[in-house]
Amino acid sequence: RDPLTLLGIETSCDETAAAVVRLYPDGHGEILANVIRAQLDLHAAYGGVVPEIAARAHVDLLDPAIRQAMSEASVDFGDLDGVAAAAGPGLIGGVIVGLTTAKAIALGCGKPFVAVNHLEAHALSAGLTDDVAPPYLLLLVSGGHTQLVVVHDVGRYTRLGTTLDDALGEAFDKAAKLLGLGYPGGPEVERHAARGKPVIPLPRPMTGRPEPHFSLAGLKTALRQEAMARAPLSDQDVADLCASFQAASDVVRDRVLRAMALFEDRVPEGTALTLVAAGGVAANGPLRTVLGEVAVARGYRLVVPPPALCTDNAAMIAWAGAQRLARGLTDDMGAAARARWPL
Ligand code: KG4
Ligand code: ZN
Is rRNA-binding among this UniProt entry's keywords (predicted)? Predict the structure, then answer.
């Protein structure tokens, strides 16, 4: 068998991304190019992603991103083994831009096309840079999703828990917004938290519940009340509020511990225990520390992809596409863009 070389395209939120990735017959991966054109400055003034602005920006940014990725990888379109795009879940206008472009390239070059679930791509991303194979327990924490999933195999997932309201990244973003910090909020809250003390009591929603679900909206409401009670906020107030919010990674500790017990019930006895974190919030330092502690306590190996593969990128789309292509799982030109698409 020869290696598979795929072009991947990601346009489901506010990153316009194109990447070229290779899957070798022994299962290991190589990133030949990983191009991201962030739209941050276009959305910053609004404190969040504006779908229509994102979709229009993808139209402008995608072709140059693909050209750059192909040129950095020194790969011709004719040398590709397939083209993959995120077909959802995400902001539908942007997804349509990437999906349609990928179909056009695949059709024009006579190559297989793979419609990738963005969540599956996050779920499999660790295998691109680390020697990790299913089954493993996945904590997926991004701006749009907060899930605990058993990854049994490519295409076989059991969702153990999800959020009943806000995603963890969304909670960070809202916390930052109400404290007058920049967007995206996660890195801002982390930065300010580092010079504060977690002295402000905030709730720990859902801890102790048997099912490893999350509920994060109450945390944001409590933070708002604490912030209003202290207005006008000093620099130290902001730092302490951020530190207190950041300390809510206790919730993640509790929920992951619960999911570990369920995971161990679901995998064959003797399975090496692995916890994989993915999604933008997995870039958070204090959260990584908590996950490290939990992993050590329960005898798990913790795998967190490098930050550039945790946040949205096209290498993970190409990688998931390659995994599917290797198993004969390709799609036809009728594959639809999906705003919602659970794993
Ligand atoms: O995976 P991602 O790039 O996009 C989605 O699919 O949502 O995740 C973006 C989210 C944003 O909410 C952002 O605030 C959060 O990840 N994030 C962080 C950090 N870096 C990014 N949250 C906490 N700490 C960070 N260092
Ligand atoms: Zn994502």
Answer: no
Pocket test for ligand 1, best of 174, 309, 311 (most atoms within 8 A of CB): 311
Note the pLDDT of residue 59: 95
User: For a pocket test of ligand 1, which of 179, 220, 246, 281 has the largest count of ligand atoms closer than 8 A to its C-beta?
Assistant: 281
Q: Are residues 37 and 179 in the same domain?
A: no
CA distance 189 to 231: 18
Query: In which domain, by residue range, is 65 found?
Result: 4-126+309-326
170 Cα nearest atom in ligand 1 = 12
Q: How many domains does the chain have?
A: 2
Residue 1 confidence (pLDDT): 79
Report the candidate in 2, 265, 27 with the shortest Cα–Cα distance to residue 133.
27
Strand partners, 114: 84
pLDDT at residue 120, as a whole number: 96
Q: Is residue 338 part of a domain?
A: no
Q: Is residue 111 part of a domain?
A: yes
Predicted pLDDT of residue 161: 97
Q: What integer pLDDT is reported at residue 43 of this predicted model? A: 83
On whether both 88 and 142 belong to a single domain, the answer is no
Q: CATH number of the domain that 14 lies in?
A: 3.30.420.40
Do 59 and 37 form a contact (C-beta atoms < 8 A)? no
Report which protein residue has its CA nearest ligand 1's atom 16. Answer: 280
Query: Is the CB of 249 inside a 6 Å radius of any atom of ligand 1?
Result: no
Give the Å distance between the CA of 269 and the centre of ligand 2: 32
- Does the annotation place 58 within a ligand binding site? no
d(CA 130, CA 97): 31
Question: Is 110 annotated as a binding-site member?
Answer: no
pLDDT value of position 4: 98
DSSP string across 44-74: HTTTS--HHHHHHHHHHHHHHHHHHHHHHHT
Instruction: Flag residues of the chain having pLDDT under 70.
Output: none
167 lines ligand 1 (CB under 6 A): no
Burial class (CB in 10 A: 0-12, 13-18, 19+), 56: middle
